Amino acid sequence: xxxxxxxxxEPYRVDPDPAVxxxxxxxxxxxxxxxxxxxxxxxxxxxxxxxxIAQHRAExxxxxxxxxxxxxxxxxxxxxxxRRPRP
Length: 87
Ligand SMILES: [Zn+2]
Description:
The structure is a single chain. With about 90 residues, the protein is an alpha+beta fold. The protein has a domain at about 20-75. It contains one helix and four strands, in the order ββαββ. The protein has a two-stranded antiparallel sheet. Strands 2-3 form a two-stranded antiparallel sheet. The two termini are about 20 Å apart. The structure holds zinc ion. Zinc ion binds near residues 36, 38, 56 and 60. Zinc ion (ZN) binds near residues 30 and 36.
């Protein structure tokens, strides 16, 4: 099956928003009789996330985690990009 899009997009660029910090969150992915799923607060400091992981490791003995990173971005029309001809 072929899907054709009829939308035409402006040439946008996407950049990190310098006014907003990264958000990092760790989650324990220990699987046992009951899955742990302990979750850290959302933080912008990687060292604090690492500290939370180390503390959970020491208290619960769990060693496997996932880290989620989220950042704010800004989309702006990229005036440097050439416009694509319309079909
Ligand atoms: Zn855990």
